[in-house]
Structures are given as structure tokens and as C-alpha cells.
Amino acid sequence: AKENGRNQFHFFAKSMQQQVNRRVELEHKLRNAIKNQELNLFYQPIVDTQSASLYGVEALMRWQLSDGSFISPEEFIPVAEESGLINEMGEWLIKQACSDIQLLNSNCDCQCMLSVNVSSQQYRLGFNAEILSTILNDTQFNANLLNLEITESILLDNDQAVMNWLQDLRATGAQLAIDDFGTGYSSLSYLRRFPINTIKIDRSFISDLTASEDSAVLVKAIVSMADSLNLKVIAEGVENNIQLKSLNDLGGQYVQGYFYAKPLPIDALQTWVNEHICR
Ligand code: C2E
Ligand code: CA
Ligand code: CA
Ligand code: CA
């Protein structure tokens, strides 16, 4: 038994060591990818289903290796957050996305919204309204079309510093959205306290929508709560017509998902926009 325990220990220690190695290696590769400009942006359309028009796009980071394969953001964003690299990556992203979508909007004379993810780690590392204002100025992007997506976790400790940070960001003209809504926490009081404009319902609820009565009840409750708080609701991860239909039946108006489009490189997005109505 003793011998067995020792083997198990060696097994765990080895696999932990392998995980650590993979992290360290990934961080090293990520630094090089930033230096060599191997990071890229894709944009996923968000559709207003009531008017069947393009409401906006979400910018999503992509890391393509020289062999053509992609490393998933689910893998490299956590590494970027832990290493602090997310700070410069995030600033680069907003700059690039504002300039891309500013051009798209002027090309097609439309008012497409731009959503970007802002990690809570960026708050800790100093991203703020002043930096954002400079970017908006440099890119000539209309601040009212910018949507900053944050996660619930940052709102939980009801911190005055977080409140100030968010209010300053809002004062630039940008809007705030809660990402992955419904997955994290149960306290909803922050929706009234903090200057939030939009809720994004997490994909897990949408994929369950047709199979689970509970998900439908939840989505319905979220939509009606958002309605009375004057918040927009965007449903993520709508993949088929059946999900779209049940979502619409529950009052969901804004939709992001493969059913309409996958995240696209900027050229493909421009083509997509040319073939659709935009706001
Ligand atoms: P997210 O912010 O919730 O982004 C939505 C994710 O859902 C994207 O995955 C998108 O491709 C995927 N998605 C959209 N519609 C569908 C659908 O119909 N079906 C399925 N199966 N998936 C769909 P992606 O691009 O792999 O990003 C994963 C996560 O990584 C994001 O989740 C976000 O948390 C993070 N992330 C991506 N880019 C950035 C970034 O630039 N900054 C930060 N901080 N996080 C990012
Ligand atoms: Ca997001
Ligand atoms: Ca999300
Ligand atoms: Ca998500």
C-alpha cells in the first residue's frame, strides 16, 4: 500500500509539473506572439432580431500559429491574465478594434456597436478611463458605440474604487455590459447599484433552452427583470432556428451566435455587413 501511495504521489507530482511546464512555455510563446504581432482580431455579429438588422459586433482575440492552427482564448487568456500580459493585449485590442469598426462604419454609413472584453485583471493593472479616452480620440471612434464587457465577479465586493472606475469609464460615453450573466453569482442587487446598460445571457442557458424547462424559466425571468431595469439583453450562443424561436417567444431581442455568423476576420465581416441591414 505504501509503495502504491508513493507511485500515486509521483503520478500527481509529474502531471502537476507537466501543467506548470505547459503554462511557462505558453507564457513564453505568448510574449513572442505579441512581439511578432501574431495576435489577431475576429468579429462576431450581434443581430437585432426585431428589425433583422446588425446591432453590433464583439471583438474576440485570436492567436494563430505559423502552421495555421489556433490556440484557444480559453487557454491563452488565463495565461495572459496571470502574467499581466493582458494589460498591453487589451489596450492593443481596443485600439485595433476601434479603428477597424470606425472604418467599417464609415464605409457603410452605419452605427455598428463594438463590444470588447475587459478582464478584471485589467482593472487591477491600471486600464482606465483616461487610457480609453486617448484611444477613442486617436481612432476617432464614437464612444457611444462602444460596449465594455465585464464579468460579475468584479462587482461583488461592492468596492467604491470599482464603482469610481466604472463611472469614469461610463463618463467617456462608453456603455457597460455584464458578460456570461447567470453563471456566477446569485446577488442581483449590483444591477441597480452599478451603471450597467446590458446583460449578456450565457451560452449554457441557450443550449439548454429547448431541453430544460428550468433554463426557459430562467431566461424568461432574466428578460423580464432586464426589461423593468431598462437593460438590454443579448443572448449568446444561439446555434439554430429552434433556439432562436424559443428565445424570441421569451422576449429575447438581441442575438449573438453561430446561427447568424461565427466570429469573422475584418474583411469577411465587411462582406457580411454589405449583405445585411445595419443600424
Ligand atoms: P465570451 O466573451 O463569452 O465570448 C463568446 C464566446 O462564445 C466566443 O468564444 C465565441 O466564439 C463563442 N460563441 C459565439 N457564438 C457561439 C455559438 O453559437 N456556439 C458556440 N459553441 N460558441 C459560440 P471564443 O472566441 O473562443 O472566446 C472564449 C472566451 O475567451 C470569451 O468568452 C472571453 O471570455 C475570452 N476572450 C476572447 N477574446 C478575449 C479578449 O480579447 N479579451 C479578454 N479579456 N477575453 C477574451
Ligand atoms: Ca464577451
Ligand atoms: Ca459571454
Ligand atoms: Ca463565455
Question: Over all CA atoms, what is the radius of gyration?
Answer: 20 Å
Number of strands: 9
Uncertain stretches of 5 or more adjacent residues: none
Work out the oligomeric state of the chains in this entry: single chain
- Contiguous helical run count: 11
Q: What structural class should be given to the helix and strand makeup?
A: alpha/beta
* General shape: globular
User: What order do the strands of the largest sheet run in, or round the barrel if closed?
Assistant: 1-2-4-5-6-7-8-9
The major pleated sheet works out as: 8 strands, mixed, barrel
Protein name: Response regulator receiver modulated diguanylate cyclase/phosphodiesterase with PAS/PAC sensor(S)
Organism: Pseudoalteromonas phenolica
Domain EAL: 23-277
In short:
Helices cover about 50% and strands about 20% of the residues. It has helices spanning about 1-35, 75-85, 85-110, 120-125, 130-140, 160-170, 190-195, 205-210, 215-230, 240-250, 265-275, and strands at about 40-50, 55-65, 70, 115, 145-150, 175-180, 200, 230-235, 255. The longest helix has about 35 residues, at about 1-35.
